[in-house]
Structures are given as structure tokens and as C-alpha cells.
Amino acid sequence: MPLNLIKKYPQLLDISSLSERDRITSLKGIFKRDIEDNNNFCFRSKIIRPIAKEGQASMETLFHHLTTRRLKDEKGKKLKERCFDIHRSQRLHWIKFHVEEKKQDKVNSQAGDARQSPPAPDGRLQCCCPCRPRRWCCCA
Which residue in 74, 58, 67 sits closest to 29, CA to CA? Predict the structure, then answer.
């Protein structure tokens, strides 16, 4: 569990063998170090502040969002409830690395109002995310 605190990008956190309690403790330690207790948590000089949900602390909401994913029904429609996602959780410590833009090559990120790149030749929009490789989609 303490070994996860020394993991660096692109290593994955070792949480698959931990009990649920130990896993949450380990993930919250990473989250607290990289995000919650980070007074300089900025992206291109813009302070990142999580939005609070009614009845929940904003940091708790953000932690829940970063370590879980929305469930889908049998038709593929996303439901409101979320469940633990080991793949998202194993990459929790990557957030700080990408927000600080330590890797300059092959990272395409957009700050501000621009959410998408210019259209591809076939009209599809290109979505950019610093945690994923570039991909084409039809999200317009």
C-alpha cells in the first residue's frame, strides 16, 4: 500500500490485491497528496476547483468521479449510479503528471472554452484528452 505513493507515470498503481478498505486508503493517499492538499493544483495557470454536489464535499465528489465509472443498462444507456473502476483507479496518479504537462511531446490538450480540435476530413471531430491517445469520434 505505501509503495503506491512512490509509483511514477506510466506505472500503474498496485491495488488489485488489496482489500476494499486498503484500496480506498491507498487511493485516498494518492488523491490527497496530488490533488486535495496541492495548493498549486493548476492547469496552465488556471486553478482547478471541483464542483460540490448537494450534501457532499467537493473533494469527495471528485475522488468518487475519478475512481468510479457510470454503469450502463442492457441497451448501453448510461445510468446515474457508478461503480468502482480498477482501470481508472490504477491511473489516479497520472492526473498530476498530465495537469503539470511534464510530458511535452505527443500530448494534445486544450484549455478554456475549446473542447475539440478541428474536424477531420470526413467531418468527424477529434477529441483530445491528455490521459488517452487521440481518437476520432462523432460527439458534435
Answer: 67
